[in-house]
Each structure stands twice: as C-alpha cells, then as structure tokens.
Amino acid sequence: MKFYLLFALLFATPMTIAQKQPDHMPVQLCAQTADGKIRLVLDTAQQTVRYMGKNQAIPLVFQSERLTNTVSGRPSEFEYRWQERYQGKATGEYRYRLMGANFYQFRYINYRNQKIIDFENIFIDHNDTGCPIHFSGSLNIEFI
Hints:
Order of helices and strands: HEEEEEEEEEE
Radius of gyration: 19 Å
Strand content: over 45%
Largest sheet: 8 strands, antiparallel, barrel
Structural class: mainly beta
Number of helices: 1
Oligomer: single chain
C-alpha cells in the first residue's frame, strides 16, 4: 500500500524539465559581418545575444545539437541552433558549427523575411575573460 501511495504522489507532483543545453562548454562567440556593420556576442551561458549599439541583450532558447559529419581520426562536426526570442516572440535563429575547438559557419536567419546574415571573424572566449569587445554600462558593444 505504501508503494502505491508513493507512486501516486510521484506522478501527481508537477515536474519541471530543465531547458536543453548544448554539450559543449559555455562560450561567448564574438563575431561580425564581413563589412563590419553588424557585430554581436552570442553568450551560451547567459543564453543571450548582444548587438553593438543596442541597449539590451536578446534572450535565446537552445533548440538543437546535430551531428553533421564524422571522419575517422578527426573530431566530429556538430551544428548548434539557438532561437532568438525578441519581446517573447520567435524572431530568428542563430546557427554555428563546431569541430573540435573550432567554431565556424556562424549565421543568423530572420524568420520574418528569411534573410540570412553570415558572420565571420569569430572570436571565442571559453573562460569569460573577455571577447575582443568592450561592454559599457548600457551593454553597448565596441570592438577594439
């Protein structure tokens, strides 16, 4: 009887499921477009993206991690996707690939118009010691 009571209580109690996280360690991906007009920091620990010249970070929700390539004797390649949630609405998606310690093919896809923005000059800050970007008190970003 005690077993049935415990079983009933276990399933009657609301359960919360932790939000998915990527398997790689938290990083800050600092990147810019080829022309340098758009600069951002995607912070996987804080689950935010911050654009240069903007006053606040935009929340992100981790969507997926997918194995894209395996070659014997080399690290596997994975693709990661993060959904942008601006003012509570899904507005776009950030994607990047990781092979070993190398991040590349970093892009943003705008859900409204399907425009794709590719980023390059990706700098990685594994230890939260600072990207080659300075944050002012208002979270504006400046590349140095």
